[in-house]
Design goal:
- This protein is an alpha+beta fold and 168 residues long.
- 17% of the residues lie in helices and 45% in strands.
- The chain contains one helix and 13 strands; from the N terminus they run αβββββββββββββ.
- The strands form three sheets. Strands 3, 5, 6, 8, 9 and 11 form a six-stranded antiparallel beta sheet that branches. Strands 4-1-13-7-10 form a five-stranded antiparallel beta sheet, with no helix packed on it.
Length: 168
């Protein structure tokens, strides 16, 4: 009568090999997690009411920062500087009165990427606008929102915002 017994040395070798694979996978996961940089920004411009129009182009310094993970956004200058190379998503939204034209433009370094605008109107009490872009950035690239001369936005009541985050 023969009994089917597993060979203990074969089981031990298999268990040892699986343990080595598990350790290798854990080490690989730790390496990937260390390399994953988190970057996110969400800020508002709040200056107490109408902001503009000005006689020259103005980079908006969104001064009420809700999120700045990675410290990539400078609320004094209004400039986001990419801490790592990657693909980023940015949005901006605004509210403005109809007395003056409103226009905002999203820039990457010195290149205008997207804009949103509305013309001056005597009968339109308020305007809202915004836009978004997915951008491939290199470390050190700068992204900011500029308001051209002779335009304005409303800078109170949580109406005019700039947000962005690292996708990959």
């Amino acid at each position: 009568m023969s009994t089917c017994k597993p060979n203990m040395s074969d089981l031990g070798q298999s268990l040892c090999a699986m343990a080595e694979q598990l350790i290798a996978l854990e080490n690989r996961l730790k390496t990937l997690e260390k390399g994953k940089t988190k970057v996110a920004l969400s800020a508002l411009i709040e200056t107490g009411g109408a902001y503009g129009p000005f006689d020259k182009d103005v980079t908006l310094a969104y001064n009420k920062v809700y999120t700045n993970i990675g410290d990539a956004y400078n609320s004094c200058t209004g400039i986001f500087t990419a801490p790592v190379t990657g693909v980023y998503y940015f949005t901006f939204f605004y509210h403005a009165g109809g007395k003056h034209a409103s226009k905002l433009e999203l820039f990457k370094n010195c290149e205008m990427i997207v804009r949103s605008s509305d013309h001056k109107s005597g009968c339109d009490g308020a305007d809202n606008g915004g836009n978004a872009a997915v951008l491939q950035l290199q470390q050190g690239d700068q992204v900011y929102v500029r308001m051209p001369a002779h335009h304005h936005v409303w800078a109170t009541s949580i109406s005019t915002s700039f947000s962005g985050f690292l996708l990959s």
